[in-house]
Model the fold of this input.
Amino acid sequence: MPAPPPPGPPGIRPVVLDAAGIPLSGLLALPAQPVPRAVVVALHGAGMSAGYFDSRARPGLSLLELGAALGYAVLALDRPGYGASAAALPEGQELAGQTETLLAALDGFARDHELGAGFFLVAHSNGGRLALSAAADADFAPVGLDLSGLGRRFAVEPGQLPGAAADLKGQWRRHWGALRFYPPDAFRLGQALVRPVPALEARETVRWPDMYPRFAARTRVPVRFTFAEQELWWRTDGAALEELLSPLPRGSAEAVRLPDSGHNISLGWAARTYHLRVLAFLEECLLARDAAAVRVGRPSDRDLKKVDADLT
Done:
């Protein structure tokens, strides 16, 4: 039995959201002010849990702690089939069901909490599939998406994917990368975060390369993809990145690399760097949205000439 992680700061508390009768557990950090700048919704990858975004290996690595300190609410959720929902969903859900469950939970959260500028999704690995699917929903309008450890073309064979029968031994390095990228306690504490990959999720993962273009074409908000220096699950060559970005609306997406990191970015030394970049990207999304609103409301030259004529 792995040792439990040390308790988080007093401002981080466990929560359970009602998603149309399905309980979604997670962690919530609120800022000091009553209205946050926005709500960061964090979605973990395959075989992990919400605590992925709340590393206790060293001070300063937690996204929840950092986000709350900078004025955001941060809600890290156990995805459907994990945590409190595992009993109700013993095989998990395919992506369409996960999306419906997540949006129901966020709808309930919005009724009881201040949202500030709205929801911003940050997701890791398979959590990024859920974030893109949610953003493609016509009735959901997040501020933006920041996705790490998610591409379009696998760098492994289907039988090597998380949750597959062959994923029992020998895949450790693909999840973590070089040992030097992580604090010594990260591996011990990380054992308490690991969960079984639900069967429905595992079976559907292999179809992602063909599913991706449909979600990308319907995404209407800025998207940033972050790849670790040692990303070993996904192809990150120039052709693969072009294939990843091209289905998204032109000018709305980018792909960047994070030095000194492995696939589990938020558990490594680079976690704080990455989380600061996530929140900086969120600020960029807010600024761009505000600027667009100003342009829409700005009077045209013809309107100004008419006002000038009326005054004279």
